[in-house]
Design a protein that fits this description.
By secondary structure, the protein is mainly α. It has seven helices and no strands. Helix 2 runs antiparallel to helix 3. The C terminus is likely disordered.
Length: about 210
């Protein structure tokens, strides 16, 4: 994957991450206070009719975030297995949004919502584990420098925290922070020095010495 492709994927991921931040803030500050839907319902805080378009929009955000994860996997050497695990986890979240739709009018304790909730949990867990593995590898390597070295691990730590927050009323706030950590990660990828500019002097020096 060349530098231009990676940067384009990073931009897509950055857009998705920033939109995820905005969605979390919007739900917490506007949708929840105005909702008259019981929090026992799977669609909460949305009505059952609104859940379908909302789920499709959220699936689109996961898809953009997924493109950013692919950029991350294409940027690093060490920890790439972890990055690909995060890719799989994000794809599971993408699929889970569509799986939500058939159960829009059901209660949280019914079988369908319970199963879909487990799928969301699986996606979050895979993403967290993958980012933690990749984050530790990046921190120990010399591939990234400065503040960028800490971005993958920070995203992994918060993704791990999201596992617990998924079962609380603070989920929208957690999602907003999750989006913010990913935005930092994708911005780090976008601003990485070009591989071609870092390797060309070494090649030139080798030719001169030879």
């Amino acid at each position: 994957m060349n530098n231009l492709s990676i940067r384009r994927l990073a931009v897509a991921g950055l857009v998705g991450a920033v939109a995820t931040v905005a969605s979390g803030i919007l739900i917490e500050a506007v949708v929840k206070p105005a909702s008259d839907v019981s929090d026992d319902m799977w669609s909460y805080p949305w009505s059952s009719d609104a859940l379908t378009p909302v789920s499709i929009v959220f699936a689109g955000l996961h898809l953009l975030v997924l493109l950013g994860m692919l950029a991350f996997a294409g940027t690093i050497r060490r920890g790439r297995v972890g990055a690909m695990l995060a890719v799989v986890g994000t794809f599971v979240l993408f699929l889970a949004e569509f799986a939500t739709i058939p159960f829009a009018d059901q209660r949280m304790d019914e079988t369908g919502p319970q199963v879909v909730g487990s799928v969301f949990g699986l996606g979050v867990s895979l993403t967290a584990i993958g980012l933690l593995i990749a984050g530790v590898a990046v921190l120990r390597s010399t591939e990234w420098h400065g503040w960028r070295r800490y971005a993958p691990l920070a995203a992994g730590v918060w993704s791990l925290a999201m596992i617990g927050l998924s079962f609380t009323s603070a989920l929208p706030v957690g999602v907003a922070i999750y989006g913010a950590t990913l935005a930092v990660l994708y911005f780090a990828i976008y601003t990485l020095p070009s591989h071609s500019t870092t390797t060309r002097p070494d090649r030139l020096r080798a030719r001169i010495e030879h």
